[in-house]
Structure formats: structure tokens, C-alpha cells
Amino acid sequence: MRLFSRSCEFRQAAYLVSADRLNAGERIALEAHAASCVQCADALRNGRSVDAALRGAFSPLRERRTMIAPGRVRLAVGPRSAATNPWLRAPRFFGRLAEVSVMIGVTLFAVGATLDPSARQSTSTATHSVVQGNLRGQPPVGDIDYLRWIRLNKPDDSPAVSDQTRLPMGGRFDGDPVEIQKAPGAVPR
Amino acid sequence: MKPDTRRDPAAGDGRTDHELVYAARDGDTIAFDALFYRYRDGIFRLGLAITKDPSAAEEIVVDTFARAHRALARLEPDDSLRPWLYRVAVNLSYNRRPRKGVVLSSLDEAADVAFENDEGSPSHVAEQAELRRLVLGAVDELGPKHRLVVVLHYMNGLNLTEIAEVVDCPVGTVKSRLHYALRRLRTHLAAHPELGIEPSRPIIANQLRAPKPITAAVPFEGE
């Protein structure tokens, strides 16, 4: 079963008769058709009423004006139009490049100056220890140098430091250690 | 009597849009100003109808003409300036459309300033204002595409071909959208008898096309 009827093909034209600029022949044809078609006559009549209501409602809005001056457009356009010339952008580009270079240089200098001095000395210490190792490995020929070499290779006679002092540990005061003795009949839980 | 020496800046010395565009392209600021004054109000009203915000509509005017100024060199001489400007304005207006949850005034409230200028008895003015409010409220309830077509035609006075250029679709689509919008408005406005619009007639049973009888033989399963 068909649920919707197919509307007349003139119906859209009947609604748009005032919006769509029909020529005289089309208008006569439409009105002749509307004389025999109930739907199109209804659409023609009420379409004109809706059209008139819309024109009346929009008429005060059509009188609405604004007071913007063209100077605002020039303000919005001006700087951008100057920037479109690439030759005018070149000095700004080089100035920016110089700024960035100086910034990077100052940053690197500041980072280098704040490095840990021990880290910088570590390289010289490492070099010194290599020289000492070579001296220790090869006995020199001269007497004085030989004595120095012996002194350098002399084993360390300082006594080994042993931690004899009892220090407070675990929140306890220094004192004799307490031994916990088990009772003879004690059974572990 | 002293003759009126004031000149309409939108007149542009009687030059057409094409002539003004060519002159503006060569750096003639007076020609560009003439174009600005010629289309300023129309673009403002269009922006106001879509965004419902007067300050946003003014910004749309400025942005539209700023784009036009940048695009002067690219404009083809055969192109019509008015649909091009309106298309830019429509795109800018939809970018500035109020987000969800933002309550702004509707079209009928935007027209309140104009209502104050009406002449006649206070009761007549109030009656006319109420009718306008009803109609513009019904326009507000249309979908964005249908509303735009109605606004461009009834407020900005564009014909269907120009609207098709603005919304970038065929003229047939514009006709279809306007037809749909007018039918919807008729349904809405028929509830107010003072507007003189009748409700849509129910389809009478004998106007329905009868379904075609099945004439072909239905084959049996065994065949």
C-alpha cells in the first residue's frame, strides 16, 4: 500500500511564484493549472501569504545599518600587506637570526661556566695517575731518581683503621650488648 | 536654494563593481571605500542574522573586506562581487556562530531597534511587532540551511541564482530548500489566524493514487 501521495509537480513552483522570477508564459501556465488542481491552488494562495508575512517581518531588519568606517579594514589589512614583500622581511629575518645566535652563545657559556670543577679536574688527575704508573713501572737510572722511585713505590705502612668505637645503633644507647638466653624448656611458637 | 553637495560614498561616481574592483586593484582607496559602503550594511545584516551578535557582525564586515582586499588581484573580471562577498561573510559567520549553551538574542530581538521607528498608534505598532516576532521566531526554528536561504532572499534581497552562488550549490537545490522552508513556515504560522495563512489541507482519499493491481502471474513453488 502506498503511504504517501506523489505531490503535483507544479506545487514547488506555486510556493516559489514570488521568489522565482517566472516569465509571463510560465505564470499563466501555472495559474491555469492551479484552476484545476486543488493542491496547487492552495499552495499558490498560501505561498503568497507566507511570502508577504516574511517580507513584512524582514522589512525592519533590512533598514538595519552599521557605522563601521573603511579605516578599520585598512587597519586590519595594512601590516599584513607590507609583510608580503619578501625584501622587506629580510632585515627582520637577519635581526632575528642574530638574536638567536647571541642567545645560544650566552647559554652555552653559562652552562660551561657552571660545570662542576671536580669533573673538570678529573681529566688532569687521570693523566697524572698514568704518569705515576709509568714512573713506578720503570726504575730510573740516576741515583736521586732511583731514591724517589723507591719512595713512590713504598707500600703504605699506615695501620688499618678499624672501627673499634661502638656507636649507638638502632636507637639504643652505647652499652654492653645484651645476650638473650633461651629458657631450657622454651618451645618456639 | 543651495544644491546638496553631499555625495553618497557608496555610489562610487556611478561606477560598476567591476570598474571599482579594477580601480581598487591599482591602489585607488576611494574605489575600495565605495565598494565597502555599497555592501557594508548587507554583510552586517547577514552576519547579524547568523550570529545574532551585533559586535560579531561588525567584525565579520571588517574580516570580509580585509579578505576582499587581499584577494583583489585574484578576482576574475567575470565574477560577480556581491555573491563572492556574501559567501565569504557566510563562512566567517558560521565560524563565529554561538556555541552550544551560549544564549544570544534571536532574530526578532535583533529587530527591536527597528520596531521603535514604526509610526502609527501604539496598539498598531504593538500588533505589527508581535506579528513580526511570530514570523521571525518561526524562521529561527528552521534548520541552518533553510534559514540561510530564507535570510539571503528575504533580508538581503538576493535572487535564487545569487543564493546558489553564495551557498555553492545548484539553483534547483536552492529552490527545494526555499520550498521546504516556506512549507514549514506555513505549518508554523497557520496557528495564528491573524496572519491569514490557512493550515495545510489533509490529503483527500480520492486524491491518492490507487496502487496498481498485480497483473503478472505469481509462479508456484513447484514450477
Could you spell the SSE succession of chain B in H and E letters? HHHHHHHHHH
- Decide which structural class fits the backbone of chain A: mainly alpha
Biggest sheet layout of chain A: none
- Note poorly predicted spans of chain B: 1-5, 205-223
What class would the helix/strand composition of chain B place it in? Answer: mainly alpha
Beta-strand percentage range of chain B: under 5%
Largest beta-sheet characterization of chain B = none
Number of strands of chain A: 0
Whole-number count of domains of chain B: 1
Helix run count of chain B:
10
Instruction: Calculate the mean pLDDT score of chain A and round it.
Output: 74
Characteristics of this structure?
heterodimer; A: about 190 residues; mainly alpha; about 60% helix; B: about 220 residues; globular; disordered C terminus
Account of the 3D structure:
The complex is a heterodimer of chains A (189) and B (223). Chain A has 189 residues and is mainly α. Helices cover 61% and strands 0% of the residues of chain A. The two termini of chain A are 91 Å apart. The N terminus of chain A is likely disordered. Chain B has 223 residues and is mainly α. Chain B has one domain: Winged helix-like DNA-binding domain superfamily/Winged helix DNA-binding domain (Arc Repressor Mutant, subunit A, Orthogonal Bundle). Chain B is built from ten helices and no strands. The radius of gyration of chain B is 24 Å and the shape is globular. The chains are: A mainly alpha (189), B mainly alpha (223). At the A-B interface, helix 3 and helix 4 of A face helix 2, helix 3, helix 6, helix 7 and helix 8 of B.
